[in-house]
Give the backbone structure.
Amino acid sequence: KKATPDKVEEYADTIHRLCGELIDEIDAQRILLRAETGELTLKTERIGSLQVLQETIAVYSRHPAGQDRILRLDDKTADVTLVSDKTLLTRVLCNMVKNALEACRAHETVTVGCTASDGVARFWVHNSGVMSREVQLQVFHRSFSTKGRGRGLGTYSIKLLTERYLKGSVSFVSTAKTGTIFTVYCPLPPKP
């Protein structure tokens, strides 16, 4: 049976998407390996917080993890300039967003934002889910995952890349009242 032109286009789109996801996963593994061995070199540049968040949202609005979920930018998001490695910061933010989307049910919302004060940019990702105490105690451990074997590098890499390379810090809160909020703190350049 011969595929219709619509089916051929659908198959091509699926192959293209899957290839993109595979390349992204390979890049993530390569970055993580270099980070763990101390071989990762930074390429710092001036980055706008709003732009990097908008780019992250654009990636995950088309990603399977975002299917049937709402991903939105907080209306009060600050647009500040950082001097950082854009690739690593984007990797950290993408891991935060992907984890939040995967923790949601269909039609739930993940909100991302940034605030700035006291020389620090605070990037955050919120979802309404709550992690158990057991999960909270292990969340940053390498290879710990609630999603099955072969997973568990997302939050580990968030912490490793942020603290060792971006000179920042990571925290989270997960309660019935707040939902789950992962936060990455990045230093802002000193004011002239």
